C-alpha cells in the first residue's frame, strides 16, 4: 500500500476513534437532565404540509432518517421542539447510535457523524472550521483541509447534526448549507424551535423533511 494512502486511512480511523470516545462519554448523558442513560425515545411526528402526521414515527429517533434516505434528493431534515435541552438530548442519542453502531439506526451506515452546536459556530465560520473547533481542537494533525477533503470525497457517507438553530446569520457558508445550495449529498439534520424551523422552510422551500418532537 502506498505510504500516503496508508497515512490517510490511519487519520480517518483516528477521526472515528476520537468521535466515538466523545459521543460515548458518560458525562454527556449525566449532565443532560432530559436524557436518561442513552434511551431517549421522544414522540416524533413527520410533517405533511403544515400539519403533523397523526401517527408518530414507530421507532422514534431510529426512523428520523428512513424516509430521507429513501428519497435520495432530500438530504435536509428539520426537527422542531420548544425545549433546547431535549433537542440536544436527541442529537446526543443519535451521535451515540452512530458511535456504538446501533443497527436499529440508519446512522450506523454513515462513515462520519459530526455533531455541532449552533451556539458555538462563529460568525462567517466555514463548516470545516466549525468541525475542527468543536470536535478536534486538541488535534493538530486534524485540520480544516483534511476535514474538507473527507467531506468532498465521501459526501454520501457523512451526516452533520446542527443543534439549536436560532435564525442567526452565521455567514454565507453556513447559509448555503442550510439552504441546500452546497453539500447537497451530505445529510444535515437541524434542530430548532418551531418558529426557526419555519424560517428554514422559507429559506429553502421544499428542501426539508420536517419532523415535530413532542
Mean pLDDT: 89
The CATH architecture would be 3-Layer(aba) Sandwich
Strand count, sense and closure of the main sheet?
Answer: 7 strands, mixed
Number of strands: 7
The main sheet orders its strands as: 2-1-7-3-6-5-4
Return Rg in Å: 17 Å
> How far is it from the N-terminal to the C-terminal residue, by CA?
51 Å
Poorly predicted runs are none
Secondary-structure-based class equals alpha/beta
CATH class reads: Alpha Beta
Q: Would you summarize the structure shown here?
A:
This protein is 39% helix and 18% strand. It is α/β, with parallel strands linked by helices and 214 residues long.
Description:
With 214 residues, the protein is an alpha/beta fold. It has one domain: Rossmann fold (3-Layer(aba) Sandwich). Helix content is 39%, strand content 18%. It is built from 8 helices and 7 strands, in the order H-H-E-E-H-E-H-E-H-H-E-H-E-H-E. The chain has a 7-stranded mixed beta sheet with strand order 2-1-7-3-6-5-4. Helix 1 crosses helix 4 and helix 5 packs across helix 6. The termini are far apart.
For this entry, give a set of tags.
214 residues; alpha/beta; Rossmann fold; 7-stranded mixed β-sheet; 8 helices; 39% helix
List the helices and strands and how they pair.
Blueprint: H1 3-23, H2 26-30, E1 44-48, E2 51-52, H3 66-70, E3 76-80, H4 84-99, E4 112-117, H5 127-135, H6 144-153, E5 158-165, H7 172-178, E6 187-192, H8 194-203, E7 208-213
Parallel strand pairs: 3-6, 3-7, 4-5, 5-6
Antiparallel strand pairs: 1-2, 1-7
Helix pairs in contact: 1-4, 5-6
